[in-house]
Amino acid sequence: MAEPSLATIVVAYGSERELPQTLAALRAQLEPGDDLVVVDNASADASAEIARAAGARVIELERNVGFAGGCRAGAEATTAPLLFFCNPDCEVAPGTLSALRAAATLKPRWGAWQALVTLPGGREVNTSGGITHWLGMGWAGAYGASVDAVEPELHEVSFASGAALMVRREAWEEVDGFDAAYFMYCEDLDLSLRLRLAGWGVGIAPQARVEHAYDFDKGSYKWFLLERNRWWTVIGAYPGPLLLALLPALLGAELALLAVAARGGWLPEKLRAQAAVLRSLPWALRRRRRVQRTRRAGGEQALVGALSPALDSPFLGPVAELGPVRALQAGYWAFARRVVGGAHG
């Protein structure tokens, strides 16, 4: 059986230094019928010219619409049944596209799956699949661990990283892909949860490898986007019984996060995020209705099963390690799951 064709989509923004190596590695792995698209987010440098010289089809946008919007523009410009989104600064190992493409046939109900993303050098994990806490926070799974510790076979993950992400077009169109309003951050977590709600699986193909230098600290504006987008995801994707059961904890956590933000130096961004969520609430509720209409049998249970009881992100500092905090999280999550289970009993 012939493997499906794919469109590789790279969103560039000031990426002239990284593009030549990334595009050369991708072009070497394309099959007849594949497409290589670079969406240039109104770069001020020579990204578009370099992409054309490397043989890519270039879409030049008039303004920077972010990663999510750029990916949507690339997807809309192609017809391939598989969409591979790849960061412009990834080093793509030989055989990666083949391994990702094969997963489409081996896992026909997966809507999205990622490559194993490693740190530079390829010996340590950047992400082996994202982890999603029930508060809506997500982080890179197995960060810093040895790649040898990653299960080598295809397996499911809570959410698939957008750094090296394959999405089945059928699934992308069913749930309407990334939400451009997110601009950047959390769009991959949001998409993964919405896919689960719609009955699709989300996984990783560990034999596909890309290297990606990762730095969590990218300025205070990142915290604004993370917190705003987290709430949009919770409001949109969480089934009604789950959202109601978690609402007291979600609101209580806001007080704790204000203290964490003040200590971390990003309190203004946290307050801006809260204000942005409140202003956008009518839109977020309309979006929720659209998202919930995609729900399929078993989707609610799949989404709940993808959430973690422990806030053990390595990027949140010592608050995640406090024993009482961990016990409280686990206890409340157990309560919420019982409520959700009873609602569907």
From TrEMBL:
GO terms for molecular function: glycosyltransferase activity. The keyword Transferase applies. Keywords: Glycosyltransferase, Transferase. Coiled coil: none annotated. Pfam families: Glyco_trans_2_3 (PF13632), Glycos_transf_2 (PF00535). Residues 9-105, 153-251 form the Glycosyltransferase 2-like domain. Pathway: Cell wall biogenesis; cell wall polysaccharide biosynthesis. Belongs to the glycosyltransferase 2 family. PANTHER family: GALACTOFURANOSYLTRANSFERASE GLFT2 (PTHR43179:SF12), RHAMNOSYLTRANSFERASE WBBL (PTHR43179). This is GT2 family glycosyltransferase. It comes from Solirubrobacter pauli. The lineage of its organism: Bacteria, Bacillati, Actinomycetota, Thermoleophilia, Solirubrobacterales.
